[in-house]
Specification:
The protein is of the alpha/beta class. Helices cover 49% and strands 10% of the residues. Strand 10, helix 20 and strand 11 form a beta-alpha-beta unit.
């Protein structure tokens, strides 16, 4: 007897055997039991979640010889014929291969005739979004006034491509991706029924790789059975899927925590020896960072001792920054000279932006050459304060003095942004007063103000407190000055290119236009 793949062998034969679509099954069961039947049903959702299987089950429910029911008997000739794919009144059409209007009209010509075997003649059109515009028009005429003995079951992965006139004439059911835990339990049930020995973590890996698709998970399970032979184990499954070693990801995070660039590069080199998919590795890094972030906010959210240790070792700001860097790095990875080089730059970027313990974050730019005096730790002083005032008097020092001070503070990140959007009011013996526009109040969190205050203490070589006055006035800040300078540089660059003789010749000969948004000005500093 020939082997039947698991995806076909374990296709559900009743609503109870379907997993992950309880919201859809409940609506259909109630409609069937109360005989409230529609003439057209549209099932939408990603691949492998059960759209076609559910349509076939509905065909059985409508034609079962015991009557219209949500629980077909699966033993009568009609149910058996539908399961075997030989029921004459169930016409399955693949719209991807029959897109022409002539094909659609040929199918619909027989709509008027009564069913030959069952109670209803059922048209199951898979990937219905692939039909042409003329085919939709031909189908629409039948959907408007269908015969009582006809039911249309439509399935698609892309409902947005369906005309609104079609959508409005169908009952639409959106099938969701099956949750990871539910999919893993389903695989465990199948393995137990098939007498296959397995490790639960291995099946969890398969469920995760399937991304919510039941069919994909069963296809991967078939592949794992062939690859692992006697037992579906974690290591072989990981190699089959090409997943990165979880331990290697942890080694990368340990290197980041230790600020050890040599160890970080060594871990990446060890990873590269197995020629992995670095895009998938970044996905794993993102997943781990997400779990750590959740563990930092919700205590005991994960049973993993390793993740809890990372949650305690990194600050919440670190994890959020790393996640954003990895997310952008995944987008830019295809642009890198090589995948391993792109991945290295993503991880090195995390290391470069990592704050040093107990001080302001390490600046990305080289530190100023001017020597600074080191001082003993300042005695405890009141925390930085933020007050609101309707107007601000003219600051005693000029903007130029604050710009000079900013260049000596060695700030980065949000603290640098906060300082750049402030103006200096005055410096007294024990206090520094700054003004900040109230539209930037979100910058004044405890961490950023504390770092700015500490940097000012180091710069002034004395214990001072920071006071920030909020104002609605329009301040001429360092950030605004830089923004205006950038605009001026861009305008000059655009003018230089637009007046270039070669560029003008290209515009004249080819009718070209200059995309000013693509012009990048070079910072003279």
């Amino acid at each position: 007897m020939s082997y039947q793949v698991l995806a076909r062998k374990w296709r559900p034969h009743s609503f109870e055997e379907m997993i992950g679509q309880e919201h859809v099954l409940r609506m259909l069961a109630n409609a069937l039991d109360k005989q409230r039947l529609h003439h057209a049903y549209l099932f939408t959702g990603t691949r492998g979640v059960g759209k076609t299987s559910l349509a076939r089950l509905l065909a059985k429910c409508l034609n079962c010889e015991t009557g219209i029911t949500s629980k077909p008997c699966n033993t009568c000739s009609t149910c058996v014929s539908i399961d075997a794919g030989r029921f004459l009144d169930l016409l399955e059409i693949d719209a991807a291969s029959r897109t022409k209007v002539e094909d659609t009209r040929e199918l619909l010509d027989n709509v008027q005739y009564a069913p030959s075997q069952g109670r209803f003649k059922i048209y199951l059109i898979d990937e219905v979004h692939m039909l042409s515009g003329h085919s939709f028009n031909a189908l629409l005429k039948t959907l408007e006034e269908p015969p009582a003995h006809v039911k249309f079951l439509l399935a698609t992965t892309d409902p947005k491509r369906l005309p609104i006139t079609i959508l409005s004439r169908c009952l639409q059911f959106n099938l969701k991706r099956v949750p990871l835990e539910q999919l893993s339990q389903h695989l465990q049930h199948i393995c137990a029924a098939e007498n296959i020995t397995f490790d639960i973590p291995a099946l969890e890996q398969i469920a995760q790789a399937a991304d919510g698709s039941v069919r994909d998970s069963l296809s991967l399970l078939d592949q794992a059975i062939a690859f692992c032979a006697d037992k579906i184990n974690t290591d072989d499954t990981r190699r089959m899927l090409g997943n990165a070693e979880q331990e290697t990801i942890y080694n990368l995070l340990h290197a980041l925590a230790d600020a050890d660039g040599k160890k970080l590069l060594a871990s990446i080199a060890a990873l590269a020896e197995h020629a992995p998919d670095f895009n998938q590795i970044l996905e794993t890094v993102l997943s781990v960072l997400h779990q750590i972030a959740v563990a930092q906010i919700v205590k005991d959210s994960t049973p993993s001792a390793t993740l809890n240790a990372f949650a305690a070792r990194f600050s919440a700001e670190d994890i959020q920054l790393y996640y954003q860097i990895a997310l952008l790095g995944r987008r830019d990875l295809p642009l890198a000279f090589s995948p391993v080089q792109g991945f290295e730059m993503v991880m090195l970027r995390m290391l470069a932006f990592k704050p040093t313990a107990g001080s302001a974050p390490t600046a990305v730019t080289p530190p100023p050459t001017t020597a600074k005096k080191t001082v003993a730790p300042a005695p405890p002083t009141p925390a930085a304060t933020v007050t609101s005032s309707p107007v601000v008097s003219s600051p005693s020092p000029s903007l130029d003095d604050w710009t000079k001070i900013l260049s000596q503070l060695g700030l980065s990140g949000l603290s640098q942004v906060l300082a750049s959007n402030c103006v200096l009011d005055k410096i007294t013996a024990d206090q520094v007063e700054l003004s900040l526009s109230d539209k930037h109040i979100t910058l004044t969190n405890k961490q950023t103000t504390s770092r700015l205050e500490e940097a000012l203490r180091q710069y002034l070589n004395k214990p001072v407190t920071l006071k920030i006055n909020l104002t609605s006035a329009d301040l001429h800040t360092n950030a605004k000055q830089k923004e205006q300078l950038k605009k001026d540089q861009h305008a000059s660059a655009v003018d230089a290119i637009a007046t270039d003789g070669h560029v003008q010749k290209i515009i004249d000969v080819f009718g070209a236009t200059l995309d000013i948004n693509s012009v990048k000005a070079i910072d003279p500093t």
